[in-house]
Design a protein that fits this description.
three-stranded mixed sheet; 8 helices
Length: 278
């Protein structure tokens, strides 16, 4: 005869005495990205704490390889007029030669640990530490800044010209005339240490990265959308107006999200532990 035993039901309650403000201060769910906290700092609505980031003594091979294609693309699109032809006419022998040179150059730099994110060990360990900003970081980020700014400005200018003249054929002339003056002026600012992430010290890296990644997010989202619309929509004044509105709208919307610290890598990184006063 089987013996039946009835176990008492146990109900467990989790009781918290935290106030609503303290609940808001708790980090968001931990995942790939570091935890963030609802704290207003300047325009940002969320922050990250430097103490939440584990200190690594080396970068994994997978981490280094994941960053290498980023810099391949940055250097590959550096000659703006050639890049314009890539999206207009397709890949050709000139681009193949340039891509080969970029692969060799960035590959050598990566093996030597002279590309951001491809170093054998992280250069910036503490985001408020006053350390000299290496030349390779300043060169790479200056180049990236120049492309982000130049492509956004020239595409807006080209769309406005298409609206006013009704023709897109001026785009190549625009790139030939204006691209390198724009990027060279940005290179000069970088050489003078007047760009975020390109200054002589890395002391303000926890804040300067916000401006860089916010700009990259905005342009890297707006550019493919504009390219798709350019292919999908007919050549007409109405279509050009739609392209301009969508492109500028994405730049403004994503830029504002970054300003508020709502996108990855756009939150200020501040020192210390989170403290809630009683």
């Amino acid at each position: 005869m089987a013996l039946s035993v009835r176990l008492p039901r146990v109900i467990m309650l989790a009781v918290t005495t935290a106030t609503p403000d303290e609940e808001k201060s708790r980090p968001s769910r931990r995942g790939i990205l570091p935890p963030s906290y609802e704290r207003t700092l300047g325009h940002a609505e969320r922050i990250e704490l430097a103490s939440d980031r584990p200190i690594r003594d080396h970068n994994k091979i997978s981490y280094r390889l994941a960053h290498w294609p980023i810099w391949i693309w940055v250097f590959f699109i550096a000659p703006g007029p050639l890049t314009l032809e890539l999206f207009d006419r397709g890949f050709d022998s000139r681009m193949a030669l340039w891509l080969g040179a970029v692969l060799i150059g960035t590959g050598i730099a990566g093996l030597r640990g002279r590309l951001p994110g491809v170093e054998p060990r992280p250069y910036i360990i503490r985001f408020t530490e006053d350390r000299p900003n290496p030349l390779y970081r300043r060169v790479c980020y200056t180049l990236a800044w120049s492309e982000v700014i130049a492509y956004a400005l020239l595409n807006i200018t080209g769309l406005v010209m298409a609206l006013t003249t009704g023709a897109w054929h001026h785009m190549r002339q625009l790139y030939d005339v204006a691209y390198f003056p724009i990027v060279i002026s940005i290179w000069v600012l970088g050489a003078l240490g007047l760009l975020p992430r390109v200054k002589r010290s890395t002391q303000n890296e926890g804040h300067e990265r916000r401006y860089f990644y916010g700009s990259v997010w905005a342009v890297c989202i707006a550019q493919p959308v504009l390219w798709f619309l350019w292919r999908a929509l007919p050549r007409s004044t109405t279509a050009d107006a739609i392209k301009l509105a969508v492109f500028v709208g994405i730049l403004a919307y994503v830029g504002n999200m970054a300003r508020r610290g709502l996108l990855p890598r756009t939150r200020p990184i501040v020192p210390g532990e989170l403290a809630v006063s009683d």
